[in-house]
Amino acid sequence: MSDQLPEGQQPQDAEKLQEVAREQDAKKIAPKRVLFVCLGNICRSPAAEGVFADYVRRCGVEDRVLIDSAGTAGYHIGKRADPRMSAAAARRGIELTSEARLLSSRDLSHFDLIVVMDRDNYRNTLALAHGAPTGHVRMLSEFLDLSEGWPQEVPDPYYGGEEGFEFVLNMLQAAMPRLTGELLGKSTNRWGQSSS
Ligand code: 4NP
Questions:
Q1: Which residues lie closer than 8 Å to 61 by C-beta, 6 or more apart?
Q2: Which of 36, 43, 98 has most ligand 1 atoms within 8 Å of CB, for mutation?
């Protein structure tokens, strides 16, 4: 179920994405702002940030996105990613560089797309919207083919073994083609207001 490619190899959709990126550049559409959210912002969402950054770089469309991550709880503010997650990502050639921060109400209006890992994240993120539109808050699993056996939530690997970190990375990598295609395919920046 993993979307692992040999390092340096371009993903299948790269050329199509580059064409869309050129069109959006020509129309002066601003880069899309994407935020990944989990509970602690030290395992799943920093990994999602790193996996997405790696994917768009390999596709050659990294200039079209701005990427960040945040947590719904503040236990680990200021910390780098959990060393177990950093090590698992590094084995795939992906460096995790973010520092944990708390999700804020401002994030809801700042980002074009907010990708949450599980239902608790979803509920806690929506609670910060205070009635503002939330169509741009999406579960990571919405970008996966669940008929392939993926779960609806990205499981929290924090209290488990090494295989949990590998599974999270597999799941994140598998979601990247659809997530990136949908994001860059939007003709407007705000999710839920798009025409394409
Ligand atoms: P994350 O994992 O939400 O994927 O960053 C967790 C990290 C820390 C804790 C729980 C989950 N914690 O309880 O400290």
A1: 14, 17, 18, 20, 21, 180, 184
A2: 43
CATH-assigned architecture of domain 26-145+156-185: 3-Layer(aba) Sandwich (3.40)
Nearest ligand 1 atom, CA 41? 5
Contact 75, 107 (CB under 8 A): no
Per-residue pLDDT reduced to its tens digit, 82-134: 999 999 999 999 999 999 999 999 999 999 999 999 999 999 999 999 999 99
The answer to whether the CB of 194 is under 6 A from ligand 1 is no
Could you give the CA distance from residue 183 to residue 65 in angstroms, rounded to a whole number? 9
Query: What sign does the dihedral 114-119-120-125 (CA atoms) show?
Result: positive
Ligand 1 proximity of 154 Cβ (cutoff 6 Å)? no
Only one residue has tokens 């959990």, namely 82
Q: How many residues does the chain have?
A: 196
Q: Where are the domains of the chain?
A: 26-145+156-185
- Among candidate residues 54, 107, 112, 156, the one labeled active-site is 156
Identify the residue whose C-alpha is closest to ligand 1 atom 9.
40
Cα 94 to middle of ligand 1, angstroms: 20
pLDDT at 7: 57
User: What predicted TM-score, i.e. pTM, was given to this entire model?
Assistant: 0.93
Quick one: how many helices (H) and strands (E) in the chain?
Answer: 6, 4
